[in-house]
Amino acid sequence: MESRNNKSINKKRFLFIFFTAYFSLAIIGFILTVRSSIKEIKQRANQIETLYGDISFSGEVIDYHPIKHSIDPPGAIMCIKIDSSTVDSFYHYDRYTALKIDNGIATLPLGQYDVEYKEVVYVHINEAGSHKMLFIIDENDTITEDLYYTSSYMYERDLKICDTCS
């Protein structure tokens, strides 16, 4: 009988140690994943600041294009006739961010399609280093967003959409 109790106690100890080790490793893995994600987010923020920090422009929205690729949700690109800008031309595309400024037209990716942006008539992007995007719908209605140049939902070829606008 004692042998049976010892086996039962040893089995319970083994299970306790096993589950304790398993949960400890799971917690350590979670912490390492979060730290890695935070590091990547900071690197991306630094990249955005380095690439785009000095770029500021404003202008009239001349077109708004929904874009759809395979199973991705629809994205959107705004074409802007630039009134004022701190740069004459700019081009960058990678898996995180994108922006094109050429011939007085800015191609601004907006991420996921939102019908509300279709009503925007004028924009101010990073005005006075504000790190904000101001979308003006009319004199009483505006949208303010944190500055981003997301390339989500788009391919690099989509930056050519505004080439035919003028």
Explain the overall architecture.
There is one protein chain. The protein has 166 residues and is of the alpha+beta class. Helices cover 31% and strands 34% of the residues. It has one helix spanning 2-52, and strands at residues 57-67, 75-85, 90-93, 98-102, 105-112, 122-125, 132-138, 141-146. An eight-stranded antiparallel beta sheet has the order 3-4-5-2-1-6-7-8, with no helix packed on it. A hairpin with a 6-residue loop joins β6 (122-125) and β7 (132-138). The radius of gyration is 25 Å and the shape is elongated.
Largest β sheet strand count, sense and barrel closure: 8 strands, antiparallel
Kindly, what is the distance between the CA atoms of the first and last residues, rounded to a whole number of angstroms? 91 Å
Helix and strand pattern: HEEEEEEEE
Model regions low in confidence, pLDDT < 50 over at least 5 residues: none
- Helix share bin: 25-40%
Enumerate how many helices there are, as a single number. 1
Q: Which strand-content bin applies to the residues? A: 25-35%
Mean pLDDT: 85
Strand order across the largest sheet: 3-4-5-2-1-6-7-8
* Beta strand count: 8
The dominant shape is: elongated
Structural class: alpha+beta
Question: How do you describe this structure in short?
Answer:
The protein has 166 residues and is an alpha+beta fold. Helix content is 31%, strand content 34%.
Key attributes of the depicted protein:
eight-stranded antiparallel sheet; 166 residues; 1 helix; elongated; alpha+beta; 34% strand
Layout: helices, strands, pairs:
Layout: H1 2-52, E1 57-67, E2 75-85, E3 90-93, E4 98-102, E5 105-112, E6 122-125, E7 132-138, E8 141-146
Antiparallel strand pairs: 1-2, 1-6, 2-5, 3-4, 4-5, 6-7, 7-8
